[in-house]
Amino acid sequence: MKFNCDTKKLHAALQLVSTVVPAKSPREILQNVLIDAQDGCVHLAGTDLEVGIRFVIPDVAVEINGKVLAEAAQLTQIVREASGKTITFDSPEPLQFTVSYQGSTYDLKGADPEEFPEVPIFEGEAVEVDASVLSGMIEHTSFAAARESVRFAINGVLFVVKDGTAHMVGTDGHRLAWIKKKVEIASDVSFNGIVPLKALDVLQRLLQDSKESVKLKLEENFILAQCGQGVVASKLVEGSYPNYEDVVPRENDRIATIGIPEMTSAVRQAAVLTSDESRALRATFADGKMTLTSRVPERGGAKIERNVEFEGEAVNIGFNPAYLLDVLKITEGETIQIELKDKDRPALFKNGDDYLYVVMPVSIED
User: Fold this and answer.
1) pLDDT of residue 352
2) The domain made up of 127-245 is a member of CATH 3.10.150.10
3) What is the pLDDT of residues 148-197, one digit of tens each?
4) Which of 244, 266, 309, 327 could cross-link with 257 by S-S, CB 3.0 to 4.6 Å?
């Protein structure tokens, strides 16, 4: 194998592929990245056996076709420090290769590329979704999903396509985010699977600033997504996802509308006087005002007021401020609508017709 490649393009590709490569693994071969130079392209692949990624660098000067398996962390560091515009790979034999650029040469040992696990390739018919739409859906839901919950099914985001609409739902049992978007697909196409958060993080990197569409295939136990020169493949999370439609409150009759910057600053200010033991603030809505209060007995308290548009009887409710800030920082537009019932019922945050965020209240002293 021998090729010359643009250094910046190779570094960007290695950074992307390395996101799935484990720093340590009982199977040391998984700490490597597969580099396959073929017919004017360099193909890179990495996997942790749950999530895998392929990426193609086109228009490369490939002199000799071939494969090498290189330690991902070491190679990424070498390429990151490269001073030349191009970088040369030369491997006269599969288990040894050199990396060279302006004034520098590295003699490196590799592993047998034939022993590297296969990363699925994208083939056959697929559903296409605009990259910016899918990226936005991931951003609006993945933050609400559980991390390492014993309820294994919620350690991921539910992805559903039905009746020409794509849905994504994330929940950790304390809050739930649900976004839906119309997509141009055949009416008889349907998906239903739970995508792990690591796969979504990798996919989000692939979609970043992309103007292209994403091709999606959801099969019995895995999902494939192709965008541009990259393909992400992931096993799906096993288990039954909660019925998200039943979680959304339908009888909240107290409605507040507030500017997002005003709400964000108020929550941040009130959160200063909360503690790890008491991550709670009291929100009071009445007479055109929202009042946030918080207290840490040994440090003092805070009272923050903001003007709001409010309909209905006065209401007090307790919130974890982190759950509020999570949704406020990704909410688009100028205002957010909050629908409430009482201190014991979940609050519903709305932003347009496509996005819902449900937050369970926390206990507050009367």
Assistant:
1) 86
2) yes
3) 777 888 999 999 988 888 999 999 999 999 999 988 765 566 788 999 99
4) 309
Q: What are the residues facing 35 on neighbouring strands?
A: 44, 68
**Rounded-to-integer distance, Cα 188 and Cα 223, Å:** 19
Domain ranges of the chain: 2-115, 127-245, 248-359
Question: What CATH number is given for 248-359 in this structure?
Answer: 3.10.150.10
Give me the mean pLDDT over the 319-341 stretch.
95
In CATH, 2-115 is 3.40.50.620: no
Other Cβ atoms closer than 10 A to 96: 13
Task: Tell me the C-alpha distance between 223 and 212, whole Å.
Answer: 19
Q: Which amino acid is at 53?
A: I
- Strand order of the β-sheet with 32-38 is 66-71, 32-38, 41-47, 51-57, 230-235, 222-227, 213-218, 127-130
| DSSP result, 338-352 | EEE--TTS-EEEEET
